[in-house]
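ok new one. same drill as before - structure tokens go in, u give me an amino acid for every spot. 331 of them this time. try not to just spam alanines like last time pls lmao
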């Protein structure tokens, strides 16, 4: 145990040095996997990165691995769902374990969190021995993932944000989270006139808030223009303060931006194109994002937790989101 602690104490400064000199997030993840794998003798060491409703295999060291893991599935998907480190002494005893190889006996998975506590990936380490991981691994690996997430927040500039309102936020969040290139989503309340509103307060329509979804996306994989085109498919753009059976100002449609120089020209161009196909004026509100308060956990990822729950968006559109590919990214 002392030897392991000593090894980690040497690795942490090396990790910081790697982050100082890394030219990209991919290179930092690759070198981190190599550093951990060679220094501590793990059986498999690597990263899975969030893409829509799946974790996609990233840089790793070790045998060939599973390439896709669904939200909430296996140890990796469960760590993503629960947003906490999972240390499993015997993977065969873990409910829903995904057996990529029978040689894997124990596992530790550490979620990678951004500055808003959204999971953008996981560090996954497997051992060919039972009960190979403990609190020493957990605390030191968490410190390493903090270094990686700090690097990402400082240097991974293609990550952008937009806030969209389109009726009940349960269905809209699920739709947006399925789109390739969307890194994270969070439901909440946008552009109201009080602080820290509750769902019950917003429901009165006296607070000025709209139910909305804060979207974080990778602009190297999806453009704002294409994201808005997909968003428009989920709404009746001419309906004022109503989507589906939901009525009230809290259910109005809106696009709320934080970067006017970058985003507003794109938003206005997409609205102009949309309006050309309409017979009456659009009712979509376009404003700077003045405030946003997350809803409580019972509303986050509601349709993932409650697959048969209420949704005003036609179910076939979820397949549209899953299969959507931005044509501008292939040019």
């Amino acid at each position: 145990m002392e030897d392991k602690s000593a090894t980690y104490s040497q690795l942490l400064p090396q990790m910081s040095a790697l982050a100082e000199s890394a030219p990209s997030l991919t290179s930092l993840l690759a070198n981190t996997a190599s550093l951990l794998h060679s220094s501590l003798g793990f059986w498999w060491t690597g990263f899975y990165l969030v893409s829509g409703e799946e974790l996609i295999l990233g840089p790793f060291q070790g045998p060939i691995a599973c390439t896709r893991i669904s939200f909430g599935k296996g140890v990796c998907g469960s760590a993503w769902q629960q947003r906490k480190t999972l240390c499993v002494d015997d993977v065969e005893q873990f409910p829903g374990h995904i057996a990529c190889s029978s040689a894997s006996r124990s596992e530790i998975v550490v979620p990678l969190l951004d500055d808003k506590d959204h999971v953008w990936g996981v560090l996954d380490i497997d051992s060919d021995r039972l009960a190979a991981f403990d609190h020493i691994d957990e605390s030191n690996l968490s410190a390493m993932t903090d270094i990686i997430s700090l690097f990402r927040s400082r240097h991974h500039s293609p990550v952008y944000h937009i806030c969209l309102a389109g009726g009940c936020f349960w269905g809209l969040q699920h739709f947006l989270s399925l789109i390739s290139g969307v890194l994270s989503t969070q439901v909440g309340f946008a552009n109201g006139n009080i602080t820290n509103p509750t769902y019950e307060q917003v429901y009165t329509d006296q607070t000025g808030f709209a139910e909305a979804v804060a979207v974080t996306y990778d602009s190297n994989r999806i453009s704002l223009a294409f994201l808005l085109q997909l968003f428009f498919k989920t709404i009746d753009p001419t309906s004022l303060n109503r989507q589906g059976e939901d009525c009230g100002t809290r259910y109005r449609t809106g696009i709320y931006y934080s970067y006017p120089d970058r985003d507003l020209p794109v938003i206005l161009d997409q609205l102009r194109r949309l309006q050309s196909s309409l017979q009456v004026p659009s009712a979509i509100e376009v404003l700077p994002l003045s405030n946003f308060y997350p809803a409580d956990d019972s509303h986050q990822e509601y349709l993932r937790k409650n697959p048969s729950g209420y949704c005003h968006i036609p179910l076939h559109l979820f397949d549209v989101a899953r299969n959507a590919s931005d044509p501008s990214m292939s040019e």
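The two ends are 53 Å apart (CA to CA). and btw Residues 159-330 form a domain with the Peptide Methionine Sulfoxide Reductase; Chain A fold (CATH 3.30.1060.10).
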